[in-house]
Structure formats: structure tokens, C-alpha cells
Amino acid sequence: MAAPAMRTSFALRRFIRRSHAIRTALYCTAPENSTQASRDPLPVFMKEEVQTLLRNMTGFDIVRVAGPQKVPLRKPRYKLLTDEELEQYQQSAENRMKYRMQMAPFMKAREPIKEVLSLDPELQGLENNKYIFTDITFGVKDRQRFVVVREPDGTLRKASWEERDRINQIYSPVEGRQFRNPPMFEEENLEALLKNHKYVHVLDMACVQFEPDNPEYIRVTHRTFEAIDSAHSYEDLRSTRHFGSMAFYYVWYKKIDYLLMDMINRELVTDAGDLVRLYCITHPDSAIAQQLKTDTASDLISVLKTFCSVEASHKGQLELAIQGYEEKTRSKATANS
User: Fold this and answer.
1) Strand ranges in 47-92 using DSSP code E only, listed in sequence order
2) How far apart are CA 256 and CA 276, in angstroms?
3) Which residues, 6 or more positions from 83, have their beta carbon under 8 angstroms from its beta carbon?
């Protein structure tokens, strides 16, 4: 490239071919009182059993998934279809909607890149600006693309994550992603959006703007999940791609009580049972996981009562929710008899 800040030389290409693959170490950002800081959530999150439970809890309301969207006005088109063709169209639409429901991975925050490749003090003073050298080979994934920076003092180092993100956005732009972080993610603006319950909008924009291991993505999404938990507004995320990540967040940090209550109050007892099951998979050494190994009771209410007695942080409120559900069930049974 002719631009001094984006120049790739043949010597650098030879150096890239001889270099080792980039190894990215990640660390977990978690609440200060959390015991999960040393664990990597991604292997647990990606288990097929965990993904199945999260999809089941998310639900699939195709009307809500598709939702009303602003589209340019155009003349309507009509097609005459057989029953078989209509079924194929409906299945195709459902598959597209399921694709839109894919959850963003729940990851640790990436560790800063501080690797120095060489120190060349003889180059100090030749330039006043940094030079960024980028491998622009077609087909290389952004995570694997080799990017190095020559500092004015002669130091040659690997580019930081922030520098890599900007370079990748120049050479391989992601649709909808801005070159600079939008002001909406600044603390004051973010809090205003959350106060107005713009949870889905914030999470959608975060998925576009950041990679899932970007500390900013983790800050924004975790703050949003905390705001939802405080407002008990879990239903706002149901049948969206974010509900599973939200549920896993509460499970990972052992704070599922209020989500359980919400599910029970909405008579989604199967989802509540799946949430407890997910908790046991994520925390196999927890009291509830050990208790259910030896407990022969298989009905969902017994499982919820066991969780309430041995694991819940808000036992009184959860007990009242379970009792309320049982009373509703008895009332319905009496009315139908």
C-alpha cells in the first residue's frame, strides 16, 4: 500500500510466513465477588446440551422474531402456490428466522497484546509517526491476520486489539460497524437507554460493533443483563437471540432466583426446570447438583423446591412463587373437574 500507515512489504510477507501463529490468551472479567473469575465459560456455553436448554428457554415466536420492519414501499407480488409449495416457503422462512436467533458466544475478555518483536534503536528519530504493516492476503480471517506496528523509537511490536479492530474495519469492513465506538455505549448514554428499557436495541448494536471477547462488549452486555435483572424485564428478551446469553449469564454468576420466579409466575415451569438443570451442568459441585444426584423425585415442582431449599439466595420470595403456582394449578384442576 502506498499509505505510510498501511504498508505491506515483501520482506514483511517473508517474515509473516516464518512467524508463529498468533496465540490469544483470554481472561475473564466478572463481578468482584464472583468465584468464576478463573473459569473459562466458553467450553460450557458451547456444549450441545447447554445450547439445547438455552434454545428451549428462549422460545420461538416467529411473529416476534420476524417483527415489523421498515422496508421501502413497493408493489405487492402475488403467487399461486400448491399446499406443498406453501409448506416449503413457510419452512424456508422459519429456517431464516432460526438463523437470526443464533446466540452470541459467552466468552472471557481477551488479554491485551503486548508482544514486542524487536528493538531497533538505530531507527529512532527517522519518523515522528507510527507505521502499521498489515498482511492483506485475501481469505485470511481477521483473527489470524498479522498486523505489526513500528514505533517512532524503533520498537517493532504486534498491534494491540484496538489497532487490529480499526485495521480490519478498513480492509474487511463489517456491515453496520462504525470505525469509532458509537456514543450510545458511553456510560451516561448507556444508562439512559437502559432506563428506557431499550435492551434489545443496545444488545443488537453491541453484537454488530464488537467482537464477543471485546472488553467493551462484555461491559455493555453484562451491564444490560444487570439492568434487566433489576427491572425483572426478562420478557423483553424472550424469542430474541439474546435471551440465551442472558440466562447463561445469570447461571454463570449464580443469580437465577428472580428469573426463576418470573418463569414460575408466567407458568413456564418447564423452562424453570431447564434453568435449574443448566445451573447443575454449569456448577456440578453446587449443593443443588449434589442433591439432585441422589434425589429420586423427578417432577419439576420437587426440583424447584429442592433448589429453593439448598441453593436459592431469595428463598422466601421463591417459595411464595412456587406456592402461588401450586394454588393456580389446584384451582384449574378444581374448575375442570
Assistant:
1) none
2) 9
3) none
Model pLDDT for residues 103-117, shown as the tens digit of each residue? 999 999 999 999 999
Residue 27 confidence (pLDDT)? 31
CA dist., res. 188 & res. 223, Å (int):
12
The three-state secondary structure class of 96 is helix
CB 306 within 8 A of CB 292: yes
How far the first Cα of the chain sits from its last, in Å, is: 80
Q: Compute CA distances 193 → 31, 104, 185, 199, 205, whole Å.
A: 22, 21, 9, 8, 12
Residue 24 pLDDT class (50, 70, 90 cuts): very low
Please check whether residue 232 is in contact with residue 226, taking contact to mean a CB–CB distance below 8 angstroms: no
Helix (H, G, I), strand (E, B) or coil at 168: helix
Angle of helix 287-294 relative to helix 300-310, nearest 10 degrees, comes to: 140
Cα gap 56→313, rounded to integer Å: 25
CA distances from 133 to 12, 16, 128 (A): 8, 11, 16
> How do residues 140-169 score in pLDDT, each as one tens digit?
888 889 999 999 999 999 999 999 999 999
Q: Which residue has the cell 423446591?
A: 305
State the pLDDT at residue 94: 76
Residue 297: per-residue pLDDT: 59
Residue 132's beta-bridge partner residues?
149
DSSP class per residue in 138-167 = TT--TTT--EEEE-TTSEEEEPPHHHHHHH
CA distance 57 to 244: 7
Q: What is the crossing angle of helices 257-265 and 315-336, to 10°?
A: 10
For 83, counting Cβ atoms within 10 Å of its Cβ (0-12 exposed, 13-18 middle, 19+ buried), the class is exposed
C-alpha span between 307 and 144 (Å, rounded): 44
Q: What is the pLDDT of residues 41-52, one digit of tens each?
A: 999 999 999 999
